[in-house]
Design goal:
Length: 455
């Protein structure tokens, strides 16, 4: 008599488990995301666990006072922009997920980190499930000389990679990519919910038990999230997203989860023939190529963690050829654009209901901060009335539904960044004037509402 295999249904979006198929996931609310996969019994998993009793022998209880933090608990990656996003360096024994679109430069970034860390005498294992060793060598030759402290393996069986890692005991393990790895304890296809969850669990045990820093490279879906169950992001310590146009030269590394630092920091890189190059002054990079004497172009300031970043806001308002005007936003919130257009119509009296409106944040950066509201409003009116904004002017502030301009955080840092780059005037919320000391380096213009902008 054949033995019936135990199966369960898993949500591909959040990892919710149920014994029967459901149309809508109770965990995340998504539709048609459940897939059937075999379930491994605890007895079978225990018999196939490669760590076995050795893992349990290493486990012991500790008190807060007995734990000593040392400077060596963080390793410099050799890239200041990456260290900034990670909160000061790579934390020993951490599990870090790096996600991004295909061809964006995730593998190149990891190889550059390997090159820098191995030059300091640290051992690294780079396990690739997508590329052969010769393919990795071709990429590595473009980046420069690599120490023999970097060990390469082309393998998709994570149990083999696990055994090699325990034997070699490196400082860092890189898995490229987590969706290609599979575990022998799970009889499901690589990239499935069960395999990704089990593979991440193995990597987490390696990191926490042996103090090995593990980097997981992950692909993203068309919605921009890491492919696989949502539980993957909950298990890791850090989630980094590599953003940008793969056809363009610039890349932005953004931290969306970090247990060891801030989640608001970004790192800016430029992709060249010899790999990724750090952009130490992102504000100058964002403003490079700014048009002169063009309406609809305004410079605003946003805060990315502790770093003020000047960006160019471009707006194009033109008469529509259809009964329903078109709205489009690139790099900014689409709903926020519609809200600000409604404020201009109601509070300022601009009739934009018969015009198409296009908004773009130059440089490929995505900004969600409301401090750009005043800059967006200024750009829209500039394009609508075809008036050029002074090139020496920088704008920031939040706009409310009544048309009032509200204070935002860190006004001093924003003003000083504008003064450093040679701007002569800053329009900011009137409530922020008392907290800014420009020392006469730049002219400050405080406004209480959008009508004070003298449209």
């Amino acid at each position: 008599m054949a033995v019936k295999r135990n199966t369960a249904y898993f949500c591909q979006n959040c990892g919710y488990e149920t014994s029967k198929w459901l149309g809508q996931c109770p965990g995340c609310g998504e539709w048609n995301t459940f897939v059937e996969e075999p379930v491994v019994s605890s007895k079978e998993a225990k018999s196939k666990d490669s760590l076995g009793s050795e893992m349990r022998k290493r486990v012991k209880l500790s008190t807060i006072s007995s734990i000593k933090l040392e400077q060596s608990d963080r390793i410099s990656s050799g890239l200041k922009e990456l260290d900034r996003v990670l909160g000061g360096g790579i934390v020993k024994g951490s599990l870090i997920l790096v996600g991004g679109d295909p061809g964006i430069g995730k593998s190149t970034l990891m190889l550059q980190v390997c090159r820098s860390v191995t030059s300091k005498g640290k051992d690294i294992i780079y396990a690739s499930g997508e590329e052969s060793l010769s393919q990795i060598k071709l990429r590595a030759e473009r980046l420069g000389f690599f120490s023999d402290s970097l060990k390469l393996v082309s393998e998709t069986n994570l149990n083999i990679v696990e055994s090699l890692t325990i034997e070699a005991n490196p400082s860092i393990l890189v898995i490229d990519s987590i969706q290609t790895m599979y575990s022998e304890t799970v009889s499901a296809a690589p990239g499935s919910v069960s395999q990704v969850r089990e593979a991440t669990g193995i990597c987490m045990r390696l990191a926490k038990t042996f103090g090995i820093t593990v980097f997981l490279i992950g692909h993203v879906t068309k919605e921009g999230a890491v492919a696989g169950p949502r539980v993957l992001e909950h298990m890791v310590d850090c989630v980094l997203y590599f953003e940008g146009d793969s056809k363009g030269p610039y890349r932005i590394l953004r931290g969306v989860k970090n247990r060891f630092g801030s989640t608001d920091e970004i790192g800016v890189f430029e992709m060249g023939e010899k790999g990724l190059k750090e952009v130490e002054n992102p504000s100058e990079f964002m403003l490079s190529g700014r048009p002169e004497n063009a309406s609809g172009s305004v410079v605003a300031c946003c805060m990315e963690g502790t770093r003020p970043l000047l960006v160019e806001i471009q707006a194009l308002v033109s008469d529509t050829n259809f009964g329903f005007p078109k709205r489009q936003a690139t790099g900014a919130d689409f709903n926020r654009l519609n809200l600000l257009i409604a404020v201009l119509e109601k509070r300022v009296g601009l009739r934009m209901s018969g015009s198409d409106a296009y908004l773009n944040i130059a440089g490929g950066i995505k900004v969600a901060e409301t401090a750009l509201d005043l800059g967006i409003v200024t750009a829209l009116v500039s394009s609508f009335r075809n008036k050029v904004v002074d090139k020496d002017l920088m704008v920031f502030g939040e706009v409310g539904l009544s048309g009032e301009v509200r204070a935002v955080s860190s006004p001093q840092q924003r003003v000083m960044e504008a003064a450093r780059l040679g701007f002569k005037k800053v329009i900011l919320p009137y409530a922020s004037l008392k907290s800014v000391n420009a020392d006469g380096k730049i002219r400050l213009i405080g406004v209480k509402s959008v009508n004070d902008l003298n449209f």
